[in-house]
Amino acid sequence: MANDAEDAVRSYLTSVKEDLMTGVSFMIPFVTIGGIFLALGYAVASFSNNVRNVFESTGTPGWFLAQIGVAGLTLMVPVLGAYIAYAIADRPGLAPGFILSYIIQQGNVLKAAGDVIGLQGGSAGAGYLGAIVAGFLAGIVARWFKQRNVPEFIAPMMPVLLIPVATTAVLTPIMLFVLGVPISIANAGLTDFLSNMQGGGQAIVLGAILGAMMASDMGGPINKVAYVFSVGLISEGVTAPMAAVMIAGMVPPIGLALSNFIAPQKYAAEMYENAKSGVLLGFSFITEGAIPYAAADPARIIPSVVAGSAVAGAASMALGVTMPAPHGGIFVVPLSNQPLAFVGCILLGSLVTAAIATAIKPNFDAKIAAQSSDD
């Protein structure tokens, strides 16, 4: 019985992660467009010394680019909620997930809801945390309606009319008057906390934690938690964690490739070709390029990459490096506020990983011989 319960919990958690990652995968293009076009808007405006007033300079090239960027970053949050609901309930959950996620981003609506229930705050919107909650609730409720038995003549109207309307009607008061304002207050508090972490000890700790999470399972659930957390903050204007996460995610493949190049005798011969591709994967922000090394020797490789990525993430946060784009690796470095520091943090973390891995790994032939003697 205990094993059955454990399997059920594991299956449920896996399903939740998959639903969340569906939302994130559909959201990423909106974040990418928003971050890059907004950065381009500021860049274009800077040539006319008008960067501070880019949103007031109506009709200028920078203003048009900034409008596209703002649209992408505004839509990314309801898209996240919409596709979480879609992953759970399919088409009937899509519109309720989008609408509920959108409505709780409207500061004036949440402020009015807060006045009704006597709770101050919430005027900044519920952010991506609210979208995640709205998406899961919309998906669960829509799926419940979807599973009801209805007369045959009503069935065709269920997915396009009855389920979306009923789901939205049921959840709107809950999202506005029960969950929306508290989530908004929590989101604002988190955003303010992270916005103030511009250098100093707190930033270093946060960067180290995010960096270690990115390397600990190299694309697995822990990695994705750190990534989703940082991507969500882009819409709040907090882009330093995204830089730390991207840098830390690039370190493991590059660092292990360096170790392989420096000390090929410590790795299987076939790993040398993997090292060449690992450099390209690393610079493309594909942390999974380190998995072949970790699979072959997890006890030594995982501590090496966690240490290197933690150092890289901590250095990035300490230096105040930012990144408005959620993906792209080395190709989006020009969008950083400190491109040279961005690259420098990658190199620092990669060297730490390479040094530790090279120091603690035995020669491959000696390791094979030891394993043979044990057998």
End-to-end C-alpha gap: 37 Å
Average of pLDDT: 83
Q: For the report, how would you describe the main beta sheet?
A: none
Beta-strand content bin? under 5%
- Tell me the count of domains: 2
Which of globular, elongated, flat, extended, rod-shaped describes the shape? globular
Helix content class? over 70%
Element order: H for helix, E for strand: HHHHHHHHHHHHHH
Uncertain segments: none
- Beta strand count: 0
Q: In words, what does this structure look like?
A:
- It is found in: Cell inner membrane.
- One of its GO terms (molecular function) is protein-phosphocysteine-sugar phosphotransferase activity.
- This protein is an all-alpha fold.
- It folds into two domains: 1-195, no CATH class; 201-373, no CATH class.
- The protein is 76% helix and 0% strand.
- It contains 14 helices and no strands.
- The longest helix has 46 residues, at 2-47.
- It is globular, with a radius of gyration of 24 Å.
- It starts with a helix and ends with a helix.
How would you describe this structure in keywords?
375 residues; mainly alpha; 2 domains; 14 helices; globular; transferase; cell membrane; transmembrane
Write the layout of secondary structure elements.
Blueprint: H1 2-47, H2 61-89, H3 91-103, H4 107-117, H5 127-146, H6 158-195, H7 201-216, H8 221-234, H9 240-262, H10 271-283, H11 291-296, H12 298-319, H13 339-360, H14 364-374
